[in-house]
Amino acid sequence: MEDLLLKCDVHTDEKLKMFCQDHSQLCCSDCVLLNHRQCTNVALISESAKKLKRHYWI
Fold first, then answer.
1. Which among 47, 18, 44 has a CA at the least distance from the CA of 8?
2. Which keywords does this chain's UniProt record carry (predicted)?
3. pTM of the predicted model as reported, rounded to 2 decimal places
4. What long-range pairs does 14-19 form, CB within 8 A, spacing at least 24?
5. For 2, 28, 29, 39, which has the most beta carbons within 10 A of its beta carbon?
6. What's the confidence (pLDDT) of residue 1?
7. Per-residue model confidence as pLDDT tens for the chain (58 residues)
């Protein structure tokens, strides 16, 4: 079940690794290259989670 949550819907062989804050969307590396090049706030999911954690705990 966890694998399904981590897989890209478009590129089914790719894992979701990035978060586009501009679109509030989880993305795989291929999606970032194809659809989020112009976005200004794309980061690794782990980095985005750290920022959220710091923001809510301070």
1. 18
2. Metal-binding, Zinc, Zinc-finger
3. 0.76
4. 16/45, 17/44, 17/45, 18/42, 18/43, 18/44, 18/45, 19/43, 19/44, 19/45, 19/48
5. 28
6. 47
7. 456 578 999 999 999 999 999 999 999 999 999 999 999 999 999 888 887 766 666 5
The 8-class DSSP code of residue 16 comes to: -
Length of the chain: 58
What's the rounded Cα separation, in Å, for the pair 15 and 13? Answer: 7
Other CB atoms within a 10 A radius of the CB of residue 29 amount to: 14
Domains, the chain, in order of start with CATH, read: 2-57 (3.30.160.60)
C-beta separation of 23 from 41 below 8 A: no
Max alpha carbon distance in the chain (Å)? 38
